[in-house]
Amino acid sequence: MIELTSVIRDLREELGRAIAAAEGEALRFELGPIELELSLALERAGQAGAKVRFWVVESGAEAEVRAVSAQRISLALQPAVAGAGTPPFISGRADANEQ
What we know:
It is built from 2 helices and 6 strands; from the N terminus they run E-H-E-E-E-H-E-E. By secondary structure, the chain is α+β, with helices and mostly antiparallel strands. The chain has one domain. The strands form 2 sheets. The chain has a 4-stranded antiparallel beta sheet. It has a two-stranded antiparallel ribbon with strand order 2-6. Strand 3 (about 35-45) and strand 4 form a beta hairpin. The longest helix has 19 residues, at about 5-20.
């Protein structure tokens, strides 16, 4: 399983690379709302003051997690670049070497 914060961090990094790749491209795409549908498992430690942690279930591991009570959730994220007044743009290529 992967922590939900790691999934969102990795998504942010990928979007950052796509925004950087859009610089100078003639054809760009405006980045709109991002919808994620995830299977989550909830973990809560038994100590006083413990935090609840959300884990994203990796594909193929779902049968195992059903015993831990996995739940499906949908997240709608609206990406924004700090300090920018307009939505970010992304290109259709991840890097210059991709065809």
